[in-house]
Amino acid sequence: MNFRSKPENVNRQAADWLARLHADNRSTQDEAAFRAWLNADPSHALAFDHSSTVWDAVGGLRDDPRSAPAPQRLSRRAVMAGGVGIILSAGLTVGWQQAQAGVYRTGVGEQRRLMLDDGTRVMLDTNTQIRFRARETMRLLSLETGRINLDIARDSRPFVIEAGDRRAVADMARLDLRRDDDHVTLTAIQGSARVEAMQAPVLLSQGHRIAMTAGHPDQLDRPELEDLTAWQSGRLAFRDQTVAEAAAEMNRYAERALVVSDAKAAAMRVSGVYSVGDPEAFARSLAVLLPIRVTAQADAVRIASMY
Question: Could you give the CA distance from residue 222 to residue 231 in angstroms, rounded to a whole number?
């Protein structure tokens, strides 16, 4: 496992290690790399132990969280020895709303990692809600809003994904799925998925993405996967996008909105990788590169052209 995170993201690194060490395909190489990471800095052990305390949410994997027994705390020694499956939260803010009847959600600025009953690993992005139901003949996950990264576990039952009126079926694949109202995108990071398209089913192969909008033809492309998955480490990658588009993406992660005040500023182009959750810092970094003026207010950060 290679980390590109900055030092201040050590908590996210610890969360990633927890997820990796409990994966079905954990290897001796993973364990050796974990030991090397653990010994590289004293703060790593502290961060790992902190992440390991997030056990009171294990009940969220059951239909009735109140009936779950108090889980045993997981230490880094237990992980090294090989423990049981876990659920954890890591992101811009720590914490989540309890799942009920298979529903999991995050608030604005929150990201969450969890493991479903069938062993499938899911990461929920900001302001996301999913519903999961495991039946005798299939597993069904519905994305009601937001974005997820889905690492589907091996199982004899097909894994069916619903997003609005569209469906996809996959088996042991890693997928990135996003839904904004009636616009849905699905990307096969690893493996493939069979997507119900407008004309005929589409086999979405590894590295490809399908964009589906009600009333419009489906679009297929091959995105830059590193940019596409940057959100999982608390960042967003922009490649020659407008300031208006970038501001809209950043606004998904913060209550304090970025407001682009005029058409000239909105049409300017931006490229780069930026941390989410601090709209003012993002706006001021743009002001170094672009002829814009930033005005910070209590409820908003305004961006305007200087000309």
Answer: 18
Q: What is the mean pLDDT of residues 132-152?
A: 95
Got the DSSP string for 185-242?
A: EEEEEES-EEE--SSS-EEE-TT-EEEEETTS--EEE---HHHHTGGGGTEEEEEEEE
Total count of residues recorded for the chain = 307
pLDDT at residue 20 above 80?
no
Q: What pLDDT, on a 0 to 100 scale, did the predictor assign at position 273? A: 93
CA distances, 181 to each of 123, 128, 146, 184, 289 (Å): 20, 12, 9, 8, 33
pTM listed for this prediction: 0.68
At 80-132, the pLDDT tens digits run 444 333 233 443 333 334 445 689 999 999 999 999 999 999 999 999 999 99
CB-CB contact of 143 with 165 (8 Å): no
CB 296 within 8 A of CB 278: no
Residue burial 64-86, b: 16+ Cβ < 10 Å; e: rest: eeeeeeeeeebebeebeeebeeb
Amino acid at 157: R
Structure tokens at 135: 């039946």
Backbone angles phi, psi at 189, to 5 degrees: -75, -45
Question: Could you give phi then psi for residue 79, rounded to 5 degrees?
Answer: -65, -40
Distance CA 123, CA 147 (A): 9
Q: 180 φ, ψ to 5°?
A: -120, 100
For 66, the token pair is 């109140």
